[in-house]
Amino acid sequence: MTSLFAQEVRLSKRHEEIVSQRLMLLQQMQNKFGNQNRENGSQQKAAETAFKRNLSLLKDIEAAEKSLQTRIHPDPRPEVVSLETRYWASVEEYIPNWEQFLLGRAPYPIGVENQSETENTLQKELRQ
After folding, report:
1. d(CA 84, CA 125)
2. Per UniProt, what is one Pfam family of this protein (predicted)?
3. What is the pLDDT along the chain (128 residues), one digit of tens a residue?
4. 3-class SS of residue 95
5. Using only C-alpha atoms, what is the Rg of the chain?
6. 107: nearest Cα among 115, 96, 97
7. Cα(58)–Cα(77) distance, rounded to whole angstroms?
8. Cα separations (Å) of 33 from 28, 41, 61?
9. If you ran DSSP here, which 8-state letter would residue 128 be given?
10. What is the pTM of this model?
11. Helix, strand, or coil here: 125?
12. Among 93, 118, 117, 97, which Cα is nearest to 108's?
C-alpha cells in the first residue's frame, strides 16, 4: 500500500509540474500573441500613413503636371481661335471639289485660283 501511496504522491507532483508548465506556456503564448497584435497594428498604421502620404504626393504631382501643361500649352489667343475656325470651315467647303478631283472624277477645281485673295485677307487680319 505504501508503494501505491508513494506512486500517487509522485503522480500528483508530476501533475502539478505539468499544470504549472502549461500555465507558463499559456502565458508565453498570450504575450507572444499580444506582441504580434501590436506589431500588426503598428504595421497597419504605418501602411495607412504611407497610403495617405502617397495619395498626397500623387495629388501634388498631378497639380504640378497640370501647372506645367498650362505653361507649355497656354490657351490660344481669340484671334488665333477665330482664324483656325474659319480655316477649317474653308477646308470643309472645298473638300467635295478636291475629293472628286483627287479621285479622278472631276477636273482641277477652278475656284482654287481665287484662293490667293483669301490668303491675302487672312494675312492682313493676322497682322492686326
Report:
1. 12
2. CEP15-like
3. 678 888 889 999 999 999 999 999 999 998 888 888 788 888 888 899 999 999 999 999 999 998 888 888 777 888 988 999 999 998 898 888 888 888 888 888 776 555 555 555 656 666 66
4. helix
5. 44
6. 97
7. 32
8. 8, 12, 41
9. -
10. 0.37
11. helix
12. 97
